[in-house]
Amino acid sequence: MKKKNKSDGTSLNSILIRKPIKRCFPIFILPTLLAFSVGFVWPFIQGIYLSFCKFTIVSDAKWVGFSNYKKAFMDASFKHAFWYTALFAIASILFINVIAFFVAYALTQKIPGSNLYRTVFFMPNLIGGIVLGYIWSMIFDGILSKYGTFLTAKASYGFWGLLILMCWQQVGYMMIIYIAGLQGVSEDMMEAAKIDGANRWQTLFRVTIPNVMPSITICIFLTLTNSFKLFDQNLALTGGMPTLFGDDGTMINSTEMLALNIYKTFYTSAKSRGIAQAKAVVFFILVAVMALIQLRFTRKKEVQQ
Amino acid sequence: MKKKSSILSIVVAVFFTLISIVYVMPIVEVLINSFKLNSFVNTETFALPTKESYAGFANYIKGMTFGNYPFLKSAFFSAYITITSTALIIICTSMAAWYIVRVNSLVSKIVYYLCVFSMIVPFQMVMFTLSGTADRLKLNTPYLIPIVYLGFGAGLAVFMFSGFVKGIPLEIEEAAVIDGCNPLAIFFRVELAMLKPTLVSVGILEVMWIWNDYLLPYLVLDRTMYMTIPIHIQYLKGSYGSVDMGATMAIIMMSIFPIIVLYLFCQKYIIKGVAAGAVKG
Q1: DSSP for B118-134, written as a single string
Q2: How far, in Å, CA of B8 to CA of A7, rounded?
Q3: Structural domains in chain B, sorted by start
């Protein structure tokens, strides 16, 4: 730790190197800076501004204050999408991490062919969300057609279907991170636990898990933000179907998550674009706050070394 | 004691073999169904093709021109965009990261924290304004969309590269300066060689992201002229009333086959790259 602090300070840039590099500013950093401004900074600032405006295209924006936000919070479909996303996030954090951890735990116990299993479990990560959605909608429809129904007939089918899909895709990814964490637990510590008379479960919960806490932090963080940002799979699997009609004529797409709700608000009607941009800002704040809180919360549990 | 554990490990191995078979089933299903006639895909999804349901390669032939857009064209655009964007991102952001770390000025600090900040911003936040900006700057072709990818993907790449550059000892570069190297030569001759593992990791992450990306090219590209594979597949399902499921499965098979082959050949690097990316991000 001390060593790192030393090199973090002044020695990171010596005048000897800094001066000549600084002269090459246009070559080294300017291309990235320009693209970054076009691809992120400007759209981001414009997005914040437009969330306070009424507009159909960027050039006809008219300032309306907070009315977009008011409308967004009153929107029943947005509220539904929020709770649906939150529920899905909790379920997927639980399922994906528990499964991935135990698969990783089993695969690090020196069983034959563990490399092969690792390869297989990781494979679905390479397939894009849209394609995954269609593969699974075919499979679920195939299963459900035996019972005379189909995937978009009921909201609960869509929920569990998406959860199975996400487990299939993400368990392999999280498994890789857990394996890296588990391999970092020192043998000495395990041996010490054995000598002290700890059984398998005690060793797992008292020694192994506290020591892989950094991996657990990362994985929970990843699954949480992945579920909140989920779009492609949601669009391709159910597209938000089935639609429920409220008594007062409101329409709610029962399996629609936040990202898809924002997308549909933007592009199904040009009139609601201001509201959609306000929803997007709320969505951004939500994701950002969650990322910060969660990182801080789980960092405390990490073993100090 | 020893015997017991060996029996246990066999049980575990058998268990995992079974799970692995279940795990690849969805892809096997796609393969099976891509050889079936359309009307049998929905009713007999899990059966092997029989004499009457077997379609041969008809689905693949149909898939080539399905949806009034040649599949090979969208496959070409997908590959082209992925390769050029990844190359651009790797080169530009590694150079930028080196500058940021070595020139510890206010500008470089601001750029660095903006990059870190951009990693937590979801795409929905900027999608409307980004597609508008790209339109106005005429970046809406496959030939210029790499600039958009560089802009939106810069955050993670700069973050990963600068994390690595911080760990490279200064003495090597100082020696190069004393030997009379200019910064460009230092970067391309000395720095890149040491950055190689990170270049591979970042490259893999970017390839996986861009190849599978749907929404960004869908919103930015002029869809009447240019499609990528995800857009093509979504277009087939989205705009037709009843879809030829057999032909769709053939297209899906054609689009995932190259990735799986590539994965089997360099899975070691891919898994390593992803793990490195995740641990740092």
Answers
A1: HTTS-HHHHHHHHHHHH
A2: 49
A3: 65-280 (1.10.3720.10)
Length of chain A: 305
* Contact (CB<8Å) A218/B275: no
Query: How near does any CA of chain B get to the CA of A206, in Å?
Result: 22
> Helix, strand, coil proportions of chain A in percent (round to 5)?
75, 5, 20
Q: Rounded distance, CA A191 to CA A203, Å?
A: 10
Check: CB of residue A265 under 8 Å from CB of residue A272. Answer: yes
Output the average pLDDT for chain B. Answer: 81
Residue entry with tokens 């795409």: B123
Chain A CB contacts of B100 below 8 Å: 29
Mean of pLDDT over chain A? 81
Q: Are A82 and A258 in contact (CB under 8 A)?
A: yes
Say what the ipTM of the complex is: 0.82
pTM beyond cutoff 0.80? yes
Specify the CATH architecture of the domain A70-299: Orthogonal Bundle (1.10)
A117:B208 CB<8 A = no
pLDDT tens sequence across B90-128: 999 998 888 888 887 888 888 888 888 888 888 888 888
Q: Within 10 Å of residue A251's Cβ, how many Cβ atoms?
A: 10
